[in-house]
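User: Teach me something about this protein's shape.
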Amino acid sequence: MNGIKVLLIEDEIKIADFVTKGLMAVGVEVTHVTDGATGLKVALEDAHDVLVLDIMLPAMNGIELMRELRESGNSRPIIILSAKVDLEDRLESFQKGANDYLPKPFYVEELIARIKALTLRISSDSKEAIVYKPET
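Assistant: First, the predicted structure itself:
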């Protein structure tokens, strides 16, 4: 997973350290910010392959951050990490532009697998098109 850049927007330092160490152990470059307003600024200014985003953040919640990103035309994949586990919260996240949702507590190995799957899906979507040419 070398070369993948993740923006982690998480205010709980213990979780952020756990995620950062796990991702760095497999060669992922991690930028970590602790509030939504800073997260939005960094997401709009810097190139990251995936955003890993908490919902309950200071300064701007994750749903609002995601809405702002999507309205600006940013289509970068977003994985939600949240203690909010109700179906309504999950559905709202998908409606606002999340690509994936991982409830807390979680295994960092599963987060790594989800990041890998998203980045592979995005890179394979952009590499080549399948064209059907019927025989005449």
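Now, about its shape. Helices lie at 13-25, 36-45, 62-71, 87-95, 108-127. DSSP finds five helices and five strands in the chain. If you'd like, I can walk through any region in more detail.
User: That's plenty for now, thanks!
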